[in-house]
């Protein structure tokens, strides 16, 4: 079975069991401007052309880091099925059309937050920012996607699956692209 098909199967199995509010959360790791790795959780959207889609603020730390160094990693940990998936790949910015599509799927409050907040920037008064968001939501008008909001498509080069076992003898498989084909290696746990 190809790694993308395994991912879909594992995701489906986890989603059927998960009670998590954000069951599609994934850790995104980037290389920081100071050469230190940075990891944070983001919402995985879907697969398009076998690439993993995430969205968010383009002028946030993660957005700037992906624009500067397109080598990224995604790590999924699924509690219910006790599985981990690690992905290393290349990030590319989404088209304006796709960014518009994902923004339109967000609820009004999330759209308002994205149109007003400057993610990761220092703030003096959080209550004042919350008030601005509430005012925007209360207008109940369509919110246009801000230019600094978009997303990234991550083309995988390596995908590692680890199925945890009570025996501690975990099933660990690494798929790597070699000469345009996925190559499988069984790894020790």
Automatic annotation (TrEMBL):
Which cofactors does this protein require?
Answer: FMN
User: Could you confirm whether the keyword ATP-binding appears in this record?
Assistant: no
Task: List, for all copies, the residue spans of the domain called Pyridoxamine 5'-phosphate oxidase N-terminal.
Answer: 24-133
> Source organism's superkingdom?
Bacteria
Q: How is the cofactor bound?
A: Binds 1 FMN per subunit.
Please report the stretch or stretches of sequence annotated as the Pyridoxine 5'-phosphate oxidase dimerisation C-terminal domain. 149-188
Pfam families (alphabetical) = PNP_phzG_C, PNPOx_N
A biological process (GO) annotation for this entry?
pyridoxine biosynthetic process
- Annotated InterPro entries: Pyridox_Oxase, Pyridox_Oxase_N, Pyridoxamine_oxidase_dimer_C, Split_barrel_FMN-bd
Which keywords are on file for this protein?
Flavoprotein, FMN, Oxidoreductase
Q: Name one GO molecular function term.
A: FMN binding
Which sites bind FMN?
40-45, 61-62, 84, 172
Gene3D superfamilies (UniProt xref) = Electron Transport, Fmn-binding Protein, Chain A
Family statement drawn from the similarity comment of this UniProt entry? Belongs to the pyridoxamine 5'-phosphate oxidase family.
Name by which UniProt lists this protein: Pyridoxamine 5'-phosphate oxidase
Question: What species does this protein belong to?
Answer: Gelidibacter algens
């Amino acid at each position: 079975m190809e790694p993308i098909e395994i991912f879909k199967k594992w995701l489906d199995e986890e989603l059927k069991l998960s009670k998590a509010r954000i069951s599609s959360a994934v850790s995104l790791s980037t290389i920081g401007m100071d050469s230190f790795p940075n990891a944070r959780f983001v919402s995985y959207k879907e697969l398009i052309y076998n690439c993993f889609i995430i969205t968010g603020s383009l002028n946030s730390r993660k957005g700037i880091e992906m624009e500067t160094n397109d080598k990224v990693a995604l790590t999924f940990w699924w509690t219910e099925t006790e599985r981990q998936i690690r992905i290393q790949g290349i990030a590319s910015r989404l088209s304006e059309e796709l960014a518009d599509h994902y923004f339109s799927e967000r609820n009004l409050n999330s759209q308002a937050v994205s149109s007003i907040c400057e993610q990761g920037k220092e703030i003096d008064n959080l209550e004042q920012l919350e008030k601005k968001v509430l005012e925007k939501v209360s207008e109940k008008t369509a919110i246009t996607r801000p230019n600094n909001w978009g997303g990234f498509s991550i083309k995988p080069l390596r995908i590692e699956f680890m199925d945890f076992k009570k025996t501690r003898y975990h099933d660990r498989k690494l798929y790597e692209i070699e000469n345009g084909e996925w190559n499988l290696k069984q790894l020790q746990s």
